[in-house]
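Q: Joint fold for the lines below.
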Amino acid sequence: MNGRRGVLAAAGLVLVGSLLTAGRLEARVQEAPPASVKAETTAPAGIDSPAAARPVKEKMAVYVILGWAWLSIGVLLWILRLRIREADRVHRMDLVHAGESSPERPGH
Amino acid sequence: MNAVKALRAWFEDRFGLRPVFAYMAKKEVPRHKHTFLYYTGSSILLFLGIQIVTGVLLAFYYQPTLAGANASVGRIITELPLGWLVRSIHSWSASFMILGVFLHMLGIAFTKSYRGPREGTWLTGFLLLVASLAFGFTGYLLPWDELSLAATKVGTNIPRALPVVGAWVTRVLRAGDDVTGDTLSRFFIVHVCVLPLVLLAIVGIHLFLVQRHGMSIPLEAERDKVRPPALPFWPNFVLRESAVWLVLLGVLLTVAVFAAPGLGPQADLMAPAPEGIRPEWYFLFLFQTLKLFPSKILGVNGELVAVLVIMAGLAAVFFVPFIDNKPAERKGRVVTALAWAGLAYAIGMSVWSLL
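A: Joint structure:
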């Protein structure tokens, strides 16, 4: 039980840490002068504006957020797997108990 | 702990939700080889929720005017922090939602879950598909770029082929004889006010019917009067559903980051249509079908014939629970074959349109 709590605490720390890192990077992007963005918004008329992160810092921040999201998903899936196993075990036990207490079963 | 109990009692006194929780605790989901199909329904709800949240965020900055539409979308994707990502998630979740609706309906068609007493569930599901496609159609014009203007002109011109009401329908869609700024305002209001209200109302009825009739079981089990093993909805099924949602969220975010939609140059009402006009992927098979029909068929307007054929096909899909309504009958196999043929046709035509 203690081991499981430890793993959960470590996973929580990783999540919070990566979230803070992503937040810091994103905040730095917001503070930085958006020179390259401005340069591209004044593109001549008639040319498509591709929508994506342009400055290197913003690209990095987005990739960190994406990595953090997949890491969180991985951890949450692992936790869900444990919960599903536990729920299925409880369900099977309920079925067994219900079967045992059924008057139709032999022995009752 | 007492405070939590007191709060629960307060809520129970006001809202009386105990029967709902009791129902959820008792609800069971059949467990068989097609159980995965049940996840498609909830995935649609997930994408709908994402659409609402990102749509509200976009609406804060979007301006539905001739001068402001394209510029405001440009501002959202280039100046606002992560605005491009919000727009990309909105756009991709729309595609994912429509894909989910198609898969959900195909799954139901192949497992014959539309048969009585679930006719109402199928009919409301079909209306949800139509509403989702209408969302896509009205949303496509909102960036007001060359391609969206041209595609909307083509799309709104299709009903004109119908006798008597055709011209009127086109005028209602366009808010005039041609696509103008009034069309943009009309599409915006329909996209953000009318369709969400209609969609939520139909979703409510659909979910009520799903709860009322329960989830369907495989045909073999129904025929042999065998009750398949079941899984408690809470927590066993909900936990599995949450895992599916998480993976879908990750996929959506990844696609939104790496394939964000761009923005074309501002639409010019006087300019000729650009080359390579193409609708969204879910309209491609209809677009290609319309292109294939000749201008005259036995002296009759070819476009009219095409529209009538498409409408007949849609009517057949809508009324399928009343056409194939008996269990284990030959008609059911014919419907399955037609569903496969329809799927192959839609994929084939869409691919052809892209070539």
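Q: Anything notable?
A: The mean pLDDT of chain B is 90. The first helix of chain B runs from residue 2 to 15.
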